[in-house]
Hints:
The protein is built from three helices and no strands. The chain is mainly α.
Amino acid sequence: MIQSLENSKIVIRYFRNRIYRIILAFWFSLIFFSLFIIPLFSNVSFWGDGGSLDFIVKSGIFHISYFIFHISYSRI
């Protein structure tokens, strides 16, 4: 019984760390593409109108709120 609880804690810790790495990779790719790749291949100037920065902020707010919602309901 105790060993199965320890194993489940290890599995939960593994998946939690994996989710954190996926979120960090997503944020890195989101920022990289919106700051460098999208302005490079489009006519929109990032520094002039702030379109890419607006995209980062809106998508970041969405993903943070979704992550908080998911964590809060997964503990019920």
